[in-house]
Amino acid sequence: MSSSTRPVTVLEKSDVLPALFGVWDDLDKLLATISEAELLTTQTELPGWHVRDVVAHLIGTELMLKGEPVPEADVDVSELDHVHNPIGVMNECWVRSFGALSSTELLEKFRAVTGDRRATLTAMSDEEWNTPTMTPAGQDSLGRFMRIRTFDSWMHEQDIRESVARPAPDAALQKPEARLSLDEIETMMGFVVAKRGGAPDGSRVAIELTGPMARTIRVAVDGRAAVVPDFGGPEPTTVIRLDGWQFTRLCGGRPLGAVRPVVIEFEGDAEVGKRIVENLGYVI
């Protein structure tokens, strides 16, 4: 996270935007294969939301970023069991506003708003791209916000795929949008390992991701926790090893999926490792 007194995250438009647009393209192709019945009746792993609700949420978020006001809901959405905070209230208002649309109309709406956003973001100057703004991770650059949008959109693509049994093939999990999603997750691992997972001072935690999304994330806790390129010689005190796609599910507060390996291995201080895994879900 960046504060107003610290430099913003500078990311290349040429890296982030193709990934964001790639998620939208993949969602377009995926949604075109889903029947009206599947869209309306298939429950996702997100409480209270069917597939159509996830699509409506994606549309609503992009409309909000265009500057459109949050619509009024037909009920007090704060009373719904699956709504727990102001962000949830806002999301639910957008979701309910598209409740009368058919699957064809919903897909057309998705194509229209993402097409408009694509044009706006493509035309944006580097100065605008790097301008500080409020993001879900605090104040940071608009470019960081769009990487977060890539991550969020990619996660929801996986939610839909898991629900309708159309898992992403290995090749898709090696695309830029998957890489940038992991990049975004990685920035939060110091907080997750030390604050949520309670790794003690002196810990050196290596999270070894396997499969198509393979990488190793290293976190050193030395007064404060930080993601580091290496431990400078010493071995890790804890190693956590699991499939990369499953790792993204846990970080997003989802259960492990059925289509990829579910085994999680620990080396070194397994107690710390298990506590970290139990607290990976940092996404609101």
TrEMBL record:
Signal peptide: none annotated. Residues 23-161 form the Mycothiol-dependent maleylpyruvate isomerase metal-binding domain. SUPFAM superfamilies: DinB/YfiT-like putative metalloenzymes. It comes from Mycolicibacterium llatzerense. GO terms for molecular function: metal ion binding. This is Mycothiol-dependent maleylpyruvate isomerase metal-binding domain-containing protein. It comes from the Bacteria. Pfam families: MDMPI_C, MDMPI_N. Residues 180-272 form the MDMPI C-terminal domain.
